[in-house]
Amino acid sequence: MGTDVGTEELAHLEMVSTIVHQLTRNLSMEEIEQSGFANYYVDHTIGIWPMAAGGIPFNSCEFQSKGDAITDLFEDMAADEAIL
To answer: What is the CA radius of gyration of the chain?
Structure first.
């Protein structure tokens, strides 16, 4: 069960990352500025950092990351109440 849920969670991340990559690749500086992406780009370049729809960045109170893939995946599944 844990493997199935973990695979599903990783698939969600892959889909979102692919969408963001496709929407932001090959942007010119003018397009970045016109789209309102400039402030985000200055802080994170093309890296992905979670942000609310209103433009408010998430902080460590909303998600957990230890830098270890297994620990992070377990934390994600626990937060999703998938394996409690």
So the answer is: 15
84 located within any domain:
no
Distances (CA, A) of 30 to 15, 34, 48: 27, 6, 20
Which residues, 6 or more positions from 55, have their beta carbon under 8 angstroms from its beta carbon?
none
Each residue's pLDDT tens digit, 13-72: 778 778 877 888 888 889 888 887 777 777 666 666 667 667 777 665 656 666 677 777
Give the number of domains in the chain: 1
Nearest CA to 13 out of 42, 52, 44, 50 is that of 50
